[in-house]
Design goal:
Low-confidence stretches of chain B: none
Largest interface: A-B, 9 and 18 residues
GO cellular component, one term (chain B): endoplasmic reticulum membrane
Low-confidence stretches of chain A: none
Family (chain B): Belongs to the ERD2 family.
Number of helices of chain B: 8
Protein name (chain B): ER lumen protein-retaining receptor
Oligomer: heterodimer
Structural class of chain B: mainly alpha
Mean pLDDT of chain B: 97
Shape of chain B: globular
Helix content of chain B: over 70%
Main location (chain B): endoplasmic reticulum
Radius of gyration of chain B: 17 Å
Strand order of the largest sheet of chain B: 1-2
Pfam families (chain B): ER_lumen_recept (PF00810)
Number of helices of chain A: 0
């Protein structure tokens, strides 16, 4: 998905 | 996604649900630190600002929405609906002693000097110490309701499981965030004293009582 910051954790 | 992080998120979810259940079933917020809940609300608000700009996955979005709404609802329940049962005299930890150092540290130590990144870093540092008012309150009252101790155990376990998730991602995904890891270790260490009491007392069927 669109995630520029690369942060994928809650 | 790995099992450590999934179970960690589910522990976090369970903690929040346990807290809401305790409040709703007992119609009381006795023993709860409203200040910790305000800090957790602030953690989610400052961390999930990218809710609409960053799409990671349906799971990520749904969990963010739930964490945001449930933490705001909890603060609402404590300070309005069940205000009469809020024990303000024992909830006296000075939040500014946490907010200011976390804000200053986030400005100085971060991955990128941009508003979003500084707010995310602030939320990481704040989450590490947000439980202190609650632990302080328990040390002042000398006890905690059993369901509150289950809440704390689930909450403390979640970040402990995240540490294992970070180890896993370091070795298998070559993914490592020193800020999140260091803050996560501090956060988990703060629960150690409580974990000891929980395992030696609550799991033996006793009430959580701190040695006088």
């Amino acid at each position: 998905g669109f995630n520029p910051s690369g942060k994928d954790e809650l | 996604m790995n099992a450590f992080r999934l179970v960690g998120d589910l522990c976090h979810l369970a903690a929040i649900v346990l807290l809401l259940l305790k409040i709703w079933k007992s119609r009381s917020v006795a023993g709860l630190s409203g200040k910790s809940q305000i800090l957790f609300g602030l953690v989610f608000v400052t961390r999930y600002l990218d809710l609409v700009t960053n799409f990671v996955s349906p799971y990520n979005t749904i969990m963010k929405v739930f964490f945001l709404s449930s933490s705001i609802a909890t603060v609402y329940l404590i300070y309005t609906k069940f205000k009469a049962t809020y024990d303000g005299n024992h909830d006296t930890f000075r939040m500014e002693f946490l907010l200011i150092p976390c804000a200053l540290l986030a400005i100085v130590v971060n991955h990128e000097f941009s508003p979003m990144e500084i707010l995310w870093t602030f939320s990481i540092y704040l989450e590490a110490v947000a439980i202190l008012p609650q632990l302080f309150m328990i040390s002042k009252t000398g006890e905690a309701e059993t369901i509150t101790s289950h809440y704390l155990f689930a909450l403390g376990s979640y970040r402990g499981l995240y540490i294992m998730n970070w180890l896993y991602r370091y070795y298998y995904e070559n993914n490592f965030d020193v800020i999140a890891v260091v803050a996560g270790i501090v956060q988990t260490v703060l629960y150690c004293d409580f974990f000891y009491l929980y395992i030696t007392k609550v799991l033996q069927g006793k009430k959580l009582q701190l040695p006088a």
